[in-house]
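Action item from last week, closing it out:
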Amino acid sequence: MSDLNIACLISPMADTEGPMEIKGNTLTGAKKIMGKYGEIGLEATITFGEENPKSIHTDILSIGNKKEVTSLQQTAIAMFQPAKHPGTLDVHAMEKDTSDLDAFAVAGLLTGMLNGLENKPDLVLVGRESFDYSHGVVGPAIAQKLGIPYFSGVNEIKLNDGLKSVTATFHEGNDKIVHEVPLPAVFGTTDWLNGKDSARFTSLKGVMMAKKFKRKTVDETDATSTTAINAIEPVKSERKNRRLEEGEGAEKAKQALDILVNQDKVLTADAGSDDGAASSAGSADWGTGDVGSLALNDDVVVIGDHDGTNIRLSTKQILSQARKVADAAGKKVSLLLFTNKGDSFPAGCSGSGADRVIAVEGSSFGHPSVEAYAKALNALVPGGPAFLMLVAHDMGRDVGSYMASQYAGGLLQDACEINLDGGALSGKRIVSNARFTTAESITASGKPQVATLRATAFDPVESDAATSHLRVSVSVETTDSVKEVVAGEQTKGIPLNEAKVIVSGGRGMKAADNFTGLESLAQVMGGAVGASRAVTDLEWVPHNLQIGQTGTTVAPDIYFAVGISGAIQHLTGMLGAKYIVAVNPDGDAPIHKHADLSVIDKWENFIGPFTEEVKKALGK
């Protein structure tokens, strides 16, 4: 009998960078591959077994049609090399077409497979992809159905002595938060774990082992979806695709400024003067209440973000949509702000669409987890509200998925448009690495309905509704504990998702010191500095400056992509920008296909002269 049982969930993922076509309400034609996030989880699983000989049993689980699952699992077995690996392995497949199922239905099938394992899993690793990369639903839903905690975006997992708990490290802003997590638990993996961003290669010997390995087939079971895709459309590019290729850097700088100011009129004298940050609405008159008197069950409840002083712009943006739904349904909007006991309460949010703001105080909310939010919501709103809305960042998506699994009322994840039709939420979201838009609706009959919203798709609104402010205390116990907080470099200025101008650098910047040029340009324009994943992994800039699939999603008025090739992982986080300027000497770099203005030159030749031209134009 093993000391630790690990279940690794891998699924056949559509290669969204390859050919795809619309067939009815389904995307077809894509090659199926092992998802990057699941691959990283599998690599960690194999390594754990190698580092703890004869102590770990691994179960690999997959669902999909026979051909896809067989190919996927044979690759996984070849990586594992069971004849050489010092642990034991079982591989389980449910050969079922999932093309007409949503992520919650698949999560239900996987939960049934997990419950049927001979070796009850202590540690479950699942890629945070849910068929479409960062829209992760499957992991939180499985954790909720199993009744165990869920953690995602983990950077490091260490097995502790005795193999009964793990030490898990996460990024929170620029800080590293180290948690002690008793097992069992579910972890959602991304594209980086334990210092690795890729999995091992398969060998010929491993491939031969895989062909001989006997996999276990699990009987099909029924599953019910809670959402439906009603239409799919390709995302249409409306970029201007201007190119500056001839002349020296200084000449291109003058030409670029003329295009931005006089031709396309995207750069004006007041550029960056309004940083987009959500300012406080003055001091609020906070009353004190108790949880039992809140009566939130018939409300549109929004979980908001704040910095201890001000409400985040992202919260004001989704409040506009909460107000829209509430008005259509004849309900009130209640904004919940979770705050650590002893923190100052954020200023009021009057005029942004909320009927009341409730500051929820508790010691578990300093470094909150999905479990902390879930338990707090169950205490505040037993049975759930009419509708629950959250910002579609990592924590928002995780909490939204977890609560939607509990409520069984359906979820619209990462919506960029939302409506209420016949009492049911419907909307649109961008999928498949920003190549397509799907129109989706909730089909479940349960309550509440949940939506996570891509905040950058919406504008805040001014509302005349009077806003009341109330403080309540909630005490929740979580299974994990914060072991250590490693403070990182603190960045100053505008948060990325609130900046109107972003100057972002990639690996082409060559060194950390070279970001000073980007900082100078951003400062002149009243903007913020961003970066690609490669740059933050190299620690050239702080982690919270990362833009992309596993970073921040932004939609500034102007986005400068400097020394960035245009990998799809980065593009998904910045294609919402109103105007994109690309600076890259490679005229064939993918970033140029998505740019309004492309400067085909080295950044060294362009950024300095362009910064001086901007200073002149803005009178600085």
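Closing note: The longest helix spans residues 313-329.
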